[in-house]
């Protein structure tokens, strides 16, 4: 609850900077690229301070890889985009300044296919590419904007009670219409998403399926939230617009132009997210129903979800039985060997774990999920030097993954290299959002003559940046 409230405050802080009561703004008042970058960095820093994102290498690789597919169609960008999964039951996704895009786990659980998820991702990227957030923002946030932002945050996180009270005055003033992206903004983002999906040869009809789900959920939520408090235009309007695009293009797309999407990776990530976030009993019931009534792909991947549940509950033998069923359906998917290797590793069977992870990592050296757990297996079998090299490899590819710094810090502590250990722990605390501890350790590193000049310089630079972010 504490983390949830702090995440809410983080969104409030963001909105305080971004929202004002005026619907149109001269370009001079919109955020510059540099200001948008600063706000994005501050936002992510604040979110990490008290809220745990699902930044497991497996989930992070998938969601960011999917985003890069869209960005390849969007062309050169002002920002380096980052995609995150937020543990929340809400059906929501939102784009923040400087290419930060967040997907709530509740949305991922509701999606049926990768194309549906990709359509949401493309829509949010469309808002950033079009700079809808920056163009509606004012550098001089007023007191009224703070109240508006608080209501927006409570709505985004599914708590309309706060918003209802705050917006009484705004409704009376006729200003509630400025809560959301305009219909024109939404149509522009949908048009870009449609074009990018088409260029990727992904059927844009997935947008229609996603919007139907959104409409169903919006109708349910409309019974709880007054219409003037909805932060997005009615999905019915978006659905009509997307359907008109589909109708217009219907006779212009060559037959068999769109490829049939393989949903293995999507379903695997969906069930990993569900097991990590959702109630275990409800998740188990859902998976058992899918196992009984789904198609071949859904059935196999429901078994995968059950394997994750069993492993989480330390029923390793059952977990391996379910994974064997998935492997039979997908004999060429190396990632299942990684999953099985992790189960063996956690169960204490390090020899089998090392063999499976070694083979998988060798065949796909770009898989940081495999590399991270292979490093764990190497360390447990006494191959500490190799483990360290693998952890370093993961750190280079995924520099914001906090756990990697904890592992490296622990190794260095065991080797008696206290200064370097403290450097890694400082980075761990930084990406865990523990500001006070990070500052304490970086201050020690800055003064520690036993560490490299590069480490001391980086500590100084990070401390300076933390001070700058506090002033934003």
Structure keywords:
472 residues, three-stranded mixed β-sheet, 3 strands
Describe the fold and architecture.
- The chain has 472 residues and is mainly α.
- 69% of the residues lie in helices and 3% in strands.
- The protein is built from 23 helices and 3 strands.
- It has a 3-stranded mixed sheet with strand order 1-3-2, sandwiched between helices.
- Helix 1 (2-18) packs across helix 7 (143-156), helix 14 packs antiparallel against helix 15 (316-329) and helix 22 packs antiparallel against helix 23 (453-471).
- The chain is globular, with a radius of gyration of 24 Å.
- The chain starts with a helix and ends with a helix.
- Mean pLDDT is 82; it is low at 4-29, 138-179 and 222-231.
